[in-house]
Design a protein that fits this description.
Layout lengths: L2 H20 L6 H8 L3 H7 L3 H25 L4 H18 L17 H27 L8 H24 L8 H22 L2
Helix pairs in contact: 1-2, 1-4, 2-3, 4-5, 4-6, 5-8, 6-7, 7-8
Length: about 200
């Protein structure tokens, strides 16, 4: 790692703490520069604007989240168990970084920059591939009947995201910076019911 790369990683690490505590809209580049004890000009040398810095922070934590979802499926003994472990990983992520609203990128702020929309789509595609491979393994070992794993994975992921986002918005409001235990439990219970329902339709 070069010295420049090391400095960028440090900035991302410090910015993550600031964003996860205050959210993107209430965080300024001055705040982050002060946290780092560097000048604003030095910060802008590495990141031209707050969106560019936030994007790098988002890529970092979402990449880590994808790895956790992958491991949750690899360690599962059945399809329902794996999918619920995947949901738990997503819920833990949502609770940890809720102030950033990175779990859905739904607040108006993100629609001003197409890079966030593109990032959300890339993450969605990667999550779908992870689920697809998990379903393929279930078919190979005889747990699931023959089915189109790709289409089923797309459907499952869309349902997971849809229920999560809709419950979040209905219970907390579209721009809420709070995520209560009641909301998390509501999302968890709804998705468990969906997983049970779908599994009963696709198991062998």
């Amino acid at each position: 790692m070069t010295e420049q790369d090391g400095k960028k990683e440090k900035i991302i690490e410090v910015a993550l703490k600031r964003f996860s505590h205050f959210g993107i809209e209430k965080t300024t580049m001055n705040d982050i520069a002060d946290d780092l004890n560097i000048s604003k000009a030095s910060l802008y040398y590495y990141f031209p604007d707050k969106n560019s810095l936030f994007l790098e922070v988002a890529i970092s934590i979402l990449s880590d989240q994808l790895e956790k979802q992958q491991k949750s499926l690899e360690n599962a003994n059945s399809i329902p168990e794996g999918l619920m472990q995947m949901i738990e990983a997503r819920l833990a992520f949502a609770e940890q970084f809720h102030m950033m609203r990175i779990q859905d990128l739904q607040i108006d702020y993100f629609y001003k920059d197409k890079r966030f929309i593109e990032l959300r789509e890339k993450i969605r595609e990667k999550e779908t591939v992870i689920i697809e491979h998990f379903l393929d393994a279930g078919i190979e070992r005889g747990e699931l009947r023959e089915l189109d794993a790709e289409k089923t994975a797309v459907t499952l992921n869309d349902i997971f995201m849809g229920i999560g986002i809709s419950r979040l918005h209905i219970c907390s409001g579209p721009n809420s910076l709070e995520l209560s235990k009641e909301v998390v439990d509501s999302i968890r219970n709804s998705l468990k019911d969906v997983i049970d329902l779908i599994y009963n339709g696709i198991k062998k």
